[in-house]
Design brief:
Mean pLDDT: 80
Shape: elongated
CATH class of the largest domain: Mainly Alpha
Low-confidence stretches: 1-5, 185-190, 257-263
Strand order of the largest sheet: 2-1-3-4-5
CATH architecture of the largest domain: Orthogonal Bundle
Number of helices: 19
Largest sheet: 5 strands, parallel
Helix content: 40-55%
Number of strands: 10
Oligomer: single chain
């Protein structure tokens, strides 16, 4: 029996039973599994419902010729290897038709089947080669699809087993192991990570005695040369990552002979091993990065506390500088958060609102006392100074990168919907949405607070002022939400008292 015959399935299609019988003798002698049919329509259904590797097909048949049979089959099967036979050379299909239908071979009928047998042998070799390549291609696809798992927080041992499981079908194997001992790129590293499946599923202490001295020597050879080493029982693949570092080896026992002429197969195995090495390196770096991130997060949180303390100090300076403004920033922040929650904003947006409410007037630290504390009406020049405080506050906060989302809110909280606000005269949707919320909260609390130049308003008057400013000074939708919220103002006052007592 030919070594190539193996599991190959052949379908003979000829409307002469005598031709099928003659071919059967030759195929039996070569050890091939085959079936025959004289009905070309039945042949199409057989290929549709069963697996065949190769078809020997007569050209001139009834009720349809061989080229029509191929045309039908190619609509649902493009892998079947087809050899076309004809007993009439002059009636053979043109070469263009043979190419168009992807017919792999053509042979004239004769009393001897030498030429046909050579074509069959050549076809089976091609089929086996294509099957091998398809196996490796599918395996590579599987490992590439498995890569996202690597970025999940799972033990490296699990990743090792995933790599082995994906590789097993490529060599029809049940036994394999992966040994990684330089995953950090440090050749002096003494920590090894091991995983085996099949007969190699064992603890590393029990695994090492399973290897012969020759196997250990071959493993060392693969690692040093960074090249696959084929041995009688299988293949040893070095795991070389994208940094050209060999981080270990992958061994797969093969139940089939590893023929040296299957160069494409070995090249694909090398690609697979490189993918595995890269995956493991990435997983290790990801794990290391997580540890570093935890350290960074702790440092970041400490810095954040210091920054908050700094800004809080600035806010306290504003409150202390003007007794009428004491607590104003806290209340504006409180109202902003309440509005954000009602609007269903994200946690990030609500945090931005909270901080922007606290720091919206931090720019007033840059205003001189004679202007900030003036009880009379401000002059046009003095008012221009006051109007700069949003820009000053934005500049103060922009120094601190963690407040980058707060900066535009602080800068724009005195802009108006009708474009008559400051500092940039933005209008409508040009004004950041969160700044429009701060604007309403800021105005309401200012109206509800005593100032040097006026007494505070009562609740109804403040609400009326907000309503009158809808669509001109304030965002109408935000005012509606805020006014609705103020229906429970007595409860809000209790919350404020509890929050800042």
């Amino acid at each position: 029996m030919s070594a190539l015959s193996g599991n190959t399935k052949i379908l003979i299609v000829d409307d002469e039973q005598g031709i099928i019988d003659s071919l059967s003798i030759m195929l039996k002698r070569s050890g091939y599994y085959f079936e025959g049919t004289t009905n070309p329509l039945e042949a199409i259904e057989k290929v549709r419902n069963e697996h065949f590797d190769l078809m020997i097909l007569d050209y001139l048949m009834v009720p349809i010729h061989g080229d029509e049979v191929v045309r039908c089959i190619r609509q649902f099967n493009t892998d079947l290897y087809i050899l076309l036979l004809t007993g009439h050379k002059d009636l053979a299909p043109p070469l263009d038709t043979i190419k168009a239908l992807d017919i792999q071979g053509y042979c004239e009928k004769s009393d001897r089947f030498d030429q046909l047998q050579l074509l069959i042998e050549s076809g089976i070799k091609s089929i086996n080669m294509m099957n091998t390549i398809k196996q490796f291609r599918d395996g590579l696809n599987r490992i590439l699809q498995a890569v996202p798992k690597i970025y999940q927080l799972q033990p490296l041992g699990n990743i090792l087993e995933d790599i082995l499981i994906q590789l097993m079908p490529l060599l029809n194997s049940e036994n394999a192991f992966i040994l990684v001992d330089n995953i950090s790129g440090n050749s002096n590293s003494k920590k090894s990570i091991f995983r085996g499946i099949g007969k190699y599923r064992a603890k590393i202490a029990d695994f090492v005695p399973m290897l012969s001295s020759k196997m250990l020597e071959d493993i060392g050879k693969a690692k040093i040369s960074k090249q696959p080493v084929k041995i009688q029982s299988g293949i040893i693949l070095p795991l070389v990552n994208e940094f050209s570092e060999c981080i270990g080896v992958l061994y797969v026992e093969s139940v089939e002979s590893l023929e040296s002429d299957i160069a494409e197969g070995y090249k694909l195995l090398e690609i697979y091993a490189a993918q595995a090495a890269s995956a493991l390196t990435n997983a290790f770096l990801h794990s290391l990065l997580n540890m570093q991130n935890e350290e960074l997060n702790r440092t970041y949180e400490q810095l954040r506390i210091r920054y908050m303390d700094t800004i809080e100090a600035l806010r306290q300076v504003v409150d202390t500088k003007d007794e009428y403004m004491r607590g104003h920033s806290d209340r504006v922040s409180f109202y902003c958060v309440k509005i954000g929650n009602i609007l269903g904003l994200s946690e990030t947006e609500i945090e931005t609102l909270r901080v922007a409410g606290l720091f919206h007037d931090v720019g007033k630290t840059g205003i001189t006392d004679d202007i900030l504390f003036k009880s009379d009406k401000l002059s046009a020049k003095e008012y221009e100074v006051i109007k700069k405080h949003p820009i000053t506050g934005a500049r103060i906060l922009s120094v601190i990168s963690m407040f980058k989302d707060v900066v535009p809110v602080v800068k724009c909280h005195h802009e108006r919907i009708d474009g008559k606000g400051y500092p940039d005269g933005l209008k409508g949707d040009e004004i950041p949405f969160l700044a429009r919320i701060v604007s309403v909260a800021d105005a309401f609390d200012a109206m509800m607070s005593d100032r040097r130049y006026r007494s505070k308003l009562d609740l109804n008057s403040a609400i009326q002022q907000l309503i009158e400013g809808k669509g001109t000074q304030f965002d109408a939708g935000i005012v509606d939400v805020f006014v609705k919220m103020l229906d429970n103002y007595s409860e809000i006052e209790k919350e404020l008292a509890a929050a800042f007592e």
